[in-house]
Structure formats: C-alpha cells, structure tokens
Amino acid sequence: MEKTEAISLKLLTEAYIDDLNRFKLPEEQHQFTALPQEISDLAEGQYGVMIMNGEEPVGFFLLHQTDRVKEYSENRKAILLTALSINQVHQRKGYARKGMTLLAEFVKDVFPECDEIVLAVNHRNIPAQKLYHNVGFADTGKRKEGPKGEQYIMALQSF
C-alpha cells in the first residue's frame, strides 16, 4: 500500500485537465460512473473535485448545487456527489477511502452553507456501497431508478 499521508481534495483547475483525461477504469466500474473526460463543461452549480496524492490527481468526482439535488434530498442545504472514480493505476491504495474521509471537512470549508451530502449508488455496486458506508454515509431508505437499475440514496449529515 502506497503512502496516503499527502492525500487532499482540491477544486478542479485547468492545470490538471490532461492528467484527468488519462484516467482509465475497468468496465465493471465504468458502468456505474463517468470518467473525468466524459464530463463536458461544468454547468453553474457543478464543481469538479480532485483527490490529490501530493500534486498528482488520483481520483475525481463532481459536487452539485443544482436543481438535480432535489431528486435526492428535500434539504435545501444539501449537495450532491456524483461520478466518483479513482484512476485504475491508483486503485487499491486507499485513495477513495481517504478522499471520502476528507469530504465532509472539504464541503464545510468550500460550501459552508451545506449540511448534508447525498449520493446515489447502484444496488449492484457493492464495493462503492461499502466505501460510502465505511466513511459515514447512511442509507436513507429512498430508491431511484438509474440507467443501470435501482440506486440506493445515501446521505452524510450533521458534519
């Protein structure tokens, strides 16, 4: 296992686009998420976030403060997490867990008005469910039909 002491979260900047465009995922993961290069220009209220190991982006996800959040939570202060991926060459090194462990503090710092983080995870994506559960997300009991079947809505509250 590589050292993960230098792991941090950082808002997307142009300087890292080429690195993110080189991300790869195995198909069994890609079916459940989008690669950074598949995400076109970010709309207002969408924020790209990189999981950094030192100065190298090893992971990526989106945070949304758009009307889309209403599909997942009635809380007007909620933010939606989507499209989490860890570049295949950096998987199984603890980066996803460490990045998600840093998420609440990052959201508190960058989006101080937010008090809930919500996400949808496919019912067949057991590794992702375990990851989110292990970092404090709880199943809300809500379900949503996604492109690949039923999704569980999970939330991280009171952070």
List the helices and strands and how they pair.
Blueprint: E1 7-11, H1 17-21, H2 27-30, E2 46-53, E3 56-64, E4 78-86, H3 95-110, E5 116-122, H4 126-134, E6 138-146, E7 149-157
Parallel strand pairs: 4-5
Antiparallel strand pairs: 1-2, 2-3, 3-4, 5-7, 6-7
What would a concise description of this structure say?
The chain contains 4 helices and 7 strands; from the N terminus they run βααβββαβαββ. With 159 residues, the chain is of the alpha+beta class.
- Would you list the SSEs in sequence order as H and E? EHHEEEHEHEE
Fourth-level CATH superfamily: Gcn5-related N-acetyltransferase (GNAT)
Distance between the termini: 29 Å
Broad structural category: alpha+beta
The total beta strand count reads 7
C-alpha geometry: globular
- Number of H/I helices: 4
Q: State the major sheet.
A: 7 strands, mixed
The portion of residues forming beta strands comes to: 35-45%
Widest sheet: strand ordering: 1-2-3-4-5-7-6
**What is the fold-level CATH name, i.e. the topology?**
Aminopeptidase
- The percentage helix is 10-25%
CATH architecture: 3-Layer(aba) Sandwich
How many domains? Answer: 1
| CATH class annotation | Alpha Beta
Low-confidence stretches: none
What's the average pLDDT?
91
Radius of gyration: 15 Å
